[in-house]
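JOB MANIFEST
job_type = single_chain_structure
chain_count = 1
residues = 263
[input]
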Amino acid sequence: MKIPPRDGPPSSGGATGPPSSRSGGPVSTRLPGSPQSARGPLPPSSTPQIVGRSITDQIETVLAQFLSPAVRKSVIDCGIRQAKVDPLYAREGDLRRLLVEVKRGVKLFVRDQAQLDRCITELGELDHAAPAPREITIDVRNEEDVLRARSAGRELCIEHLVSDVLQTKIVTAISELGRNIVRYAGNGQIIVRSLTSPMRAIEIIAQDHGPGISNLQEILSGKYRSRHGMGAGLRGTKALMDAFDVKTAPGAGTTVTVRKYLG
């Protein structure tokens, strides 16, 4: 996206002043939705915010602790291109996409895990408008409840601007885990929640009080197939997610916890 041209050089303080007309008179900088706008106010989420040098300077300040000047400039420039963001006129959603791309770039260069976690956390703190962590619990007894759980997962994905590719993986995992509850335990719960620290993620917890899984390792190794395809469901979910954990015991039920990191 092209950066809008300036009519004049920035002020001596380094900040860009309001645009001027060719005749020297001021040009209105009122945003659509101000009291004198004929269109009425825009929703808060769609009101443009001039973040420009401010947000890129804040990002660079964080990255300066972890990356050399040349590398951090490359990470920021690449993030702007990948997020397709105009750095001077960005909306809240644009800012969040930029931070996601910058975090993705940081992971290529910061090898120490503790430093990486700290960098990702500090970048996340720049997004003051990020949705607060939220949790949705769905009781699962039948296929209709599985569909409700899928909708809950999709809802959180939309709130957090998750890409279509990641959203498909998350919703598919919810389907597999929910159907396992219906087929093998009869009833249980699906909990879908968003996490913001130390990394943004969608977490899914599927829990039941059914008979448990006595041959978990055989199932996960691919050697076991039930007539309902349980092994494929669990293994497929593990392949889709970034973190996968199962706690089960005969007669004590099963809890599967998975996460998909959002960058």
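[summary]
Confidence is low (pLDDT under 50) at residues 1-53.
The CA atoms of residues 74 and 105 lie 9 Å apart.
exit_status = 0
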